[in-house]
From TrEMBL:
It comes from the Eukaryota. GO terms for cellular component: plasma membrane. May serve as docking site to facilitate the association of other proteins to the plasma membrane. This is Membrane-anchored ubiquitin-fold protein. The keyword Lipoprotein applies.
C-alpha cells in the first residue's frame, strides 16, 4: 500500500498520555485498533484494560463501533493533509463481571415489628 494512503493515529489515555502515533491502513477495523491498544498499554497505569472489549474509542465525539474501518471513522478529519488523528480511549470493564460479583456487605433483613401496646 502506498505510504500516502496510510492514516496516522494516536490514542489519548485518561491521564493525558498517548499511545502512538501509528500508521494504519484505511481498511483496518476499530477492533484491530483496540487489540493494539491493549497490547501496547503502559504497565505503570493503575487502570488497565484486560481485553479489547473493555475499551471504548471516541473520535469526533462519537463512540466507534468495532466493525467500522479507520477509513469510515476519520471523517471529518480525513481531508487534512498528513494530520495525526487523536482518538480518546475510555477504559470501561465489562458489565458481566460486575453483575456476577456479590456484594459482601449485603445482610439479609428480617421483617419483624417491635411495637409495644400498653
Amino acid at each position: 500500500m502506498p505510504e500516502e494512503d496510510l492514516v496516522e493515529l494516536k490514542f489519548r489515555l485518561y491521564d493525558g498520555s498517548d499511545i502512538g502515533p501509528f500508521r494504519y491502513s484505511p481498511a483496518s477495523t476499530v477492533a484491530m485498533l483496540k487489540e493494539r491498544i491493549v497490547a501496547d498499554w503502559p504497565k505503570d497505569k493503575k487502570i488497565a484494560p484486560k481485553e479489547a472489549n473493555d475499551i471504548k474509542l471516541i473520535n469526533a465525539g462519537k463512540i466507534l463501533e468495532n466493525n467500522k474501518t479507520v477509513g469510515q471513522c476519520r471523517v471529518p478529519f480525513g481531508d487534512l493533509p498528513k494530520a495525526v488523528i487523536t482518538m480518546h480511549v475510555v477504559v470501561q470493564p465489562s458489565v458481566t463481571k460486575a453483575k456476577t460479583e456479590k456484594k459482601v456487605d449485603e445482610v439479609p433483613r428480617k421483617n419483624f415489628c417491635s411495637c409495644s401496646i400498653l
